[in-house]
Amino acid sequence: MKELLSGNAAIARGAYEYGVTLAAGYPGTPSTEILENLSRYDEVYSEWAPNEKVALEVGIGAAMAGARALVTMKHVGVNVAADPLFTAAYTGVNGGLVLVSADDPGMHSSQNEQDNRYYARFAKIAMLEPADSQEAKDMVGLGLEISEKFDIPVMLRITTRVAHSQSMVELGEPGAREIKQYAKDVKKNLMVPAFGRLRRVSLAERLAKLTAYSESAPVNFIVKGSAKTGVITSGISYQFVREVLPDASVLKLGLTNPLPVELIKQFASCVESLYVVEELEPFLEEQIRMLGIKVTGKELFPATGEFSQGLVRRKFIEAGVLPARPAAENPLAGLPAAPPRPPVLCPGCPHRGVFYTLRRLKLTVTGDIGCYTLGGLPPLEGIDSCVCMGASIGMSHGIDKAVPGLRGKTVAVIGDSTFLHSGITGLLNTVYNGGDSTVIILDNRTTAMTGHQDHPATGRTLKGKEAPEVDLTMLCKALGVPRVEVVDPLDMAKLKEVVQTEVAASGPSVIIARRPCALLKRENRPAVTVDPEKCNGCKTCLRLSCPAISVTDKKSAVDPNLCVGCNLCVQVCKTGAMKGGNACA
Amino acid sequence: MLKPVDVLMVGVGGQGTILASKVLAAAARAVGYDVKVSEIHGMAQRGGSVVTQVRLGEKVHSPLISEGEADVILAFEQLEALRWLSYLKPGGAVIINDQQIYPVPVLAGEAEYPAGIIEQIKGKINNVLVLDALRQSIRCGNAKAANVVLLGALARELPIEEEIWREALAATVPPKFLEVNNAAFTAGYNSRSL
Question: Is the pTM value of this prediction over 0.95?
Answer without folding.
Answer: yes
